[in-house]
Amino acid sequence: MAQRNMSNEKCPMPSQDPKVRARNFDEVALGYTYEMAVGEARRCLNCKNKPCVGACPVAIDIPAFIERVANEDMEGAFEIISQSSALPAVCGRVCPQENQCEGKCVRGIKGESVGIGRLERFVADWHREHSSEAPAMPKPNGHKVAIVGAGPSGLTAAGDLAKMGYKVTVYEALHTAGGVLVYGIPEFRLPKAIVQKEIDNLKAIGVDIETNMVIGKVLTVDELFEMGNEAVFIGSGAGLPRFMNIPGESLKGVYSANEYLTRVNLMKAYRPDSKTPIKKSSKVAVVGGGNVAMDAARSAMRLGADTVYIVYRRGMEELPARKEEVEHAMEEGIIFKTLNNPVEILGDENGFVRGIRCIEMELGEPDASGRRRPVEKPGSEFELEVDTVIMSIGTSPNPLIRSTTPGLETNRHGCIVTQGEDGLTSREGVYAGGDAVTGAATVILAMGAGKNAAKAIDAYIKSKN
Amino acid sequence: MFKILEKTALNPTVTKMVVDAPLIAKKAEPGQFIIFRATEDGERVPLTIADFDREKGTVTIIFQIVGGATMELNTLEQGECIHDFVGPLGTPSHVEGLKKVCVVGGGVGCAIAYPIAKKLHSLGREVHSVVGFRNKDLLILEDEFRAASDKLVIMTDDGSYGEKGLVTAALERLITEGNEYDEVIAIGPLVMMKFVCAVTKKYGVKTVVSMNPIMIDGTGMCGGCRLTVGGETKFACVDGPDFDGHQVDFDEAMSRGSMYRDFEQKARDSFCNLMKKEVE
Fold it and tell me: The pTM is what?
């Protein structure tokens, strides 16, 4: 038994210097060294009731994998994580661990929780760098399943079903698989080579990924059944950007966060040789306070802007983004204009953005969501001089599937209605999960939904045959 | 990968390609578009479908060589493959209830106007077509339009073929001669569509235009293609590309279309000089 590490603080994550990283797209967090990982793993008490596992949407046996790390059995640790998670290198980087596993960690009561996310990342990276073993091809069971959307929920469902022996085809609308992992989350938070490796692993176990296939257009869900699929999983995400409907949103230099990030991430506009253009901005306002807003603001800084504002109508305490992302953004020099709301985007004589007019807000009584409602302060309007505005105020599910799938029930927000945890929709054999069901949420919740749906699909197909 | 089965230069700046894309051909309808990426690191660019053959499984595109992406596409030859080709996207043009229409095409926009003329003609509706080009050398699809129209008027800016003048003059004449159109379908440069709409508004003739704004994904995800139509924000990729021309804010669309003009100029300049041809 390895010696327990009783330090109350978690081992800090080595990361690039903020001044340097604010100007490059290389990964910010550099990852634990071997020694750091083993030392941090030895902080885990391996407690009996394992509150961390219950707080993990895919229920990874966290104390068991950490014990392997403490005993320097990295491959063993990887095997344990792999039983529950299809994308550990991704989750170790982008999960909001502070609200999940780490939020429940017993070590967090008197000090800092165990760095579970950082250990997960270390194990996944260690495996990628040290193991050349191709994953074993599962034995086919003779049944076919179609997955719509190659994002976190679809890829998770595909991986789990393929491991059970199903012949799985994933249909992706874009030219690259990965969904939000490739078009949304920037390279500096999640290197695309890591996503590609996870996708290659799925292909190695027999998952077919067909890109350039917009389901609802080139094929309908009904046609997927006609092609011999016995079940269909819809993980088409929530890609439709919202705007504020204020004057000036059509000016040149106003982007949705989706467009801005897609240009930067999917189309690699940050590279000098990219064929996809993006505005060279000097002063940028990002409207919104979520993780996507942080990604957009930090990308704008890296593309060479000298001033980047986050304009958010509530206060610092209410920012929906992960604390770590907010801290990183602040370190990199992003200016937080909280308790401010845009009322108009101002243009110059050529139709380009020249500024944004905002109004100061104060927090009033709590609203239906329990958060204190922001109220305008009369007469407090002011202008910020900017040449680019990025709207990051949320997204809605895409209507392409619901408008072409008769009998598929959706709610007034356009989200697909499912029955309980297993993702069954109002159509027999059609399951759904991820943002298409919940509206914009997190990668890990989408993965959890994909996992549950895979189990349900397996049970459904077995019950029929 | 999508194989180019045929490649023809229709004029010095306009190329026609017949592409092997059976799944898209099976579903395509006039008015819909595809998005291509010529090569693995190419830009995503939308092109309206010019024709399709469900039996042969082919989709025809006709494009003007205007920027880096279309220059790159034009370097591919018959037998080579387009890296990505996705569709059919957008909402098909509606044809229900139309008995008599005037299809107005300008320049390469004629490539998009043609399939709707062809479809209406094949349904037995009365189709008048007005097509305009800068000069005779730039004329495309004359035979095709003739076959798909009950009446065809060809206009050139310099009078080198057909009649001298703009499409709006011919359209106005047809209307004042007593032709009562259920709808005018105008497809061409934004400024042409704007002035066609000004004419038809005067005579109260419903007019549909096909918009082709800057776009990335083509499925409603980026919002880059947004337009103001009747005071509301619409996405050309999912709500269009066809819109009621009398409701479209053309001035805003023209302004938005110039967003990346400098970048496009650089892309053209950095391309091989041999590739450069007269570009409008």
Answer: 0.91
